[in-house]
Amino acid sequence: MTTPTSRPVVLCLSGHDPVGGAGLQADIEALLAQQCHAAPAVTALTVQDTVDVSDFRVLDRAWVLAQAEAIIADLPVAAVKLGMLGSVEMVETVLEIMRRLPGVPLVCDPVLRAGGGGSLGKDEVGYALRERLFPASTIATPNLPEARILAELPEGTADECAERLLPHIEHLLITGGHGDEHEVHNRLYSRDGSRHDFTCARLPGSYHGSGCTLASALAGRLALGQDVAGAVRSALDYTWRTLRDAEAPGRGQYIPRRLPLDLE
């Protein structure tokens, strides 16, 4: 029997969303759509629905390390995607895990708020992400409200936030869609001064798990060997299609339809 070529493995360190719109389920579905294999390690458990989050619990550090170690010992990890961490201790845990994966691209989705606005970590988590985790990351994918928190610029523009954050990270993708503009503007900034702007049509409604979908698709494209700008473009195009085809199974936000999709 001929053994098929293995799909690239992406280690996902994210929280669990019981309604399946965000978190690890979003990671798994988005990575499957990129022809990658998701290796999920749970960092936190949440109590949330499509309306908002009401509670969360960050897992014990030893449990998260044990999950990651089992994955790393068995599978050839080609990229790492971070979602909800929820505590400063979990930031340090991720750094310990990444020391065992030198040279592996790391996509940091700085999850600080749920789609409904509820907090998914204390204020010091954002500081730890910026100061400790960004330097170890290939790219971070904050939306503009998250970028303002991370940059400590409550009214800052995307350009102003990028100027404050780029000393900490090589690439920064600040996503739009949180204003009332007719087009959504997504901006990729790089420390070398290069910049790429991506626009797409605004879709009606709000979405639960769009950030997780984007970051996971991006990690998958990097695992497949795409350059950063090309991977960002592919991930943004894919994410837009998942939102276009989104479903509303609950009382709140739409859930992106990540599978099945025409990927061409």
UniProtKB/TrEMBL annotation:
Q: Give the InterPro entries listed for this entry.
A: HMP/HMP-P_kinase_dom (IPR004399), PM/HMP-P_kinase-1 (IPR013749), Ribokinase-like (IPR029056)
Report the enzyme's class at the first EC level. Answer: transferase
> Which segments constitute the Pyridoxamine kinase/Phosphomethylpyrimidine kinase domain?
17-253
Q: Mind listing the GO molecular function terms for this protein?
A: hydroxymethylpyrimidine kinase activity; phosphomethylpyrimidine kinase activity
Q: Which UniProt keywords apply?
A: Kinase, Transferase
- GO BP term (any one): thiamine diphosphate biosynthetic process
- Keyword Transmembrane annotated: no
* Cellular component per GO, a single term: cytosol
EC number(s) stated in the UniProt entry for this protein: 2.7.1.49
Q: Which Pfam families match?
A: Phos_pyr_kin
Q: In which pathway does it act?
A: Cofactor biosynthesis; thiamine diphosphate biosynthesis
| Protein name stated in the entry | hydroxymethylpyrimidine kinase
Q: What are the top taxonomic ranks of the organism?
A: Bacteria, Pseudomonadati, Pseudomonadota, Gammaproteobacteria, Pseudomonadales
